[in-house]
Design brief:
Blueprint (H helix, E strand, L loop, with lengths): L5 H14 L8 E9 L4 E4 L2 E3 L2 H16 L10 H7 L2 E5 L4 E6 L4 E9 L2 E5 L4 E3 L13 E8 L2 E7 L1 E7 L2 E13 L4 E8 L5 H8 L7 E13 L1
Antiparallel strand pairs: 1-4, 1-14, 2-3, 2-14, 4-5, 5-6, 6-7, 7-11, 8-10, 9-10, 11-12, 12-13, 12-14
Length: 227
């Protein structure tokens, strides 16, 4: 009777295990298919406000502050990013991707996965004095170094596009936000940012026992579907 050694059976098992571990077949192509618009959400000390009248009044108050300089911020502006996102996403491997623009130009990105998100990272270095220090943003680009400069700091970073991947879809978040700052006694806004809301920031607002920022925001999704 023929005998099969235990080590041979173990080897076959290991090969089978690794061959079944990831059945992803590259490349994968994703096309833009729809825009998901979410409702406006307002957070103040004490919690989230659901009354649409109060939410609309808050937005109008921020807009009135800027109307004197003929600036009219709108949370509806997220759709602008959708309308200009005319490209195909192609995942080349688990670590590389390329974006194919309407013009035929190709942009190559490294892929990183972080906190449930899919990060497309450019292999170039840019600089800014901004610092990306916005508490409401969930994500920051890949920062390579910082150095002091007069009256501030210079940040070196790799341009990064933030996304989520669920089943056969890639979802790119876009957020517009208006803030009434209690500490600075001012208001400001940031529109059409590729980012998501930081839930920890919202918790700090709702759990506050003293005067703190109040924010209204709208987070949308640009959805790309696997072809």
């Amino acid at each position: 009777m023929a005998k099969i050694s235990f080590s041979f059976v173990l080897l076959i098992g290991i090969v089978f295990l690794f061959s079944c571990d990831d059945d992803t077949s590259y490349p994968e192509k994703y096309q833009k298919v729809r825009f998901e618009e979410n409702k406006d959400r307002l957070f103040t000390a004490g919690g989230e406000v659901f009354d649409t009248t109060i939410i609309n009044e808050f937005v109008a108050r921020v807009q009135d502050n800027f109307s004197v300089i003929n600036v009219y911020p709108s949370l509806d502006s997220n759709i602008v990013i959708y309308n200009t996102s005319n490209y195909t996403i192609e995942l080349l491997s688990d670590t590389r991707a390329k974006f194919i623009l309407e013009s035929g130009e190709t942009l190559t990105y490294a892929i990183k996965r972080q906190h449930g998100a899919l990060l497309f990272v450019k292999d170039t270095i840019c600089t800014t004095t901004d610092g990306f220090n916005y508490d409401w943003n969930k994500f920051k680009p890949v920062i390579t170094k910082t150095e002091p400069i007069p009256f501030g700091e210079l940040t070196y970073y790799k341009p990064t596009l933030f996304a989520y991947q669920h089943d056969d879809e890639i979802l790119i978040p876009v957020i517009s936000i208006m803030v009434l700052s209690a500490s600075q006694r001012s208001c400001y806004f940031h529109l059409k940012e590729n980012n998501s809301i930081n839930e920890d920031y919202l918790s700090e607002i709702t759990d506050a026992t003293q005067l703190i920022d109040s924010v209204v925001f709208r987070e949308s999704r640009i959805v790309f579907s696997k072809q």
